[in-house]
């Protein structure tokens, strides 16, 4: 939990007493590698914050292949936010890429937390403002970059990530086949 | 301004006195068709809310072509949010598609507004949470849909929009050539 305390104070001023109250709205969850935290067709009850490990979000394409659309490492939030907001069933999966420890908050607790602790309105405003800005840039890159440029750009932004994520998942996220990713990597090494 | 008052109350509880105070942080701006509100290389000073008309965001590709990445109709916000947050120079343009009336808020005023009016933290938290959820869906669609499916999907979601936006801009947004868009439309009519 130390990581959440440190993380929160990067965004807002909060004292130990209020932090203790805030944490009562969350639960800690341990998940095994490849465990699904959310599956297509299930009610999207929770928003997840990664304390340790890595989660990913994917959907199943018409041809049956999994398409990864998001990763979440330590201190990142991940949810099917659209269905979480509306408390609807999800149309995607959230899965642990590795053994992970996460905080989760239910939609009901999220609403109560924001009503009881205005500092958390400010915190989530900053988080979602940053996410909106990051999504705007990601959408631009999807228009702008060739597949090889996407890989180079991602490698520059997240060098540790490239080492840590299984290559077939990274390929899926970048919209490649694993074979094409191997080709790019071989070309860059030569 | 009536449109901003109505819009705000969809998201938060605010009385007339506080609304009057909130509006002092904003300026109203009239813009001509094709007027640039922000150009690449300029400091990204403002966040814009459309009262009337339509704005778009685009960047200039290496081949010199304009790539539209976002439209904003009445009650939508638009900015180069990444450079607005960091008060850096923009790497894109914001332009009026038609004669428009907008509210704008400077970064300095945005910071002051949030500090003075916690209700606006709640408002912007909701706006950016919705934007994050919408971006997640848009990114999924960029992976999932063929070009023809993108057009059909967009037409179902925003029927009025399709009538209103010049076809060459819509084609750019969807990642088509104008010729390809004409072909799809002809095919759907036949």
TrEMBL record, chains A, B:
Which CDD domains has this protein been placed in? Answer: CAP_ED
InterPro entries named among the record's database cross-references: cNMP-bd_dom, cNMP-bd_dom_sf, RmlC-like_jellyroll
Q: Name one GO molecular function term.
A: kinase activity
Q: Which UniProt keywords apply?
A: Kinase, Transferase
**Cleavable signal peptide:** none
List, for all copies, the residue spans of the domain called Cyclic nucleotide-binding: 30-116
Q: Please verify whether the record's keywords include Glycosyltransferase.
A: no
What name does this protein carry? cAMP-binding domain of CRP or a regulatory subunit of cAMP-dependent protein kinases
User: What taxonomic ancestry is recorded?
Assistant: Bacteria, Pseudomonadati, Bacteroidota, Flavobacteriia, Flavobacteriales
């Amino acid at each position: 939990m130390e990581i959440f305390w440190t993380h929160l104070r990067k965004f807002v001023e909060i004292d130990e007493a209020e932090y203790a109250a805030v944490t009562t709205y969350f639960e800690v969850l341990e998940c095994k590698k490849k465990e699904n935290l959310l599956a297509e067709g299930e009610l999207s009850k929770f928003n997840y914050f990664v304390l340790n490990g890595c989660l990913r979000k994917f959907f199943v394409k018409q041809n049956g292949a999994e398409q990864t659309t998001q990763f979440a490492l330590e201190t990142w939030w991940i949810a099917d936010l659209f269905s979480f907001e509306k408390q609807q069933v999800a149309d995607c999966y959230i899965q642990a890429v590795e053994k992970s420890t996460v905080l989760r908050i239910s939609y009901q607790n999220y609403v109560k937390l924001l009503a009881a602790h205005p500092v958390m309105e400010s915190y989530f405003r900053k988080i979602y403002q940053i996410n909106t800005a990051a999504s705007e840039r990601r959408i631009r890159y999807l228009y702008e970059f060739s597949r090889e440029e996407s890989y180079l750009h991602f490698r520059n932004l997240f060098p540790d990530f490239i080492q840590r994520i299984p290559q077939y998942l990274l390929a899926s996220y970048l919209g490649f086949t694993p074979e094409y990713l191997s080709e790019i990597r071989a070309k860059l090494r030569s």
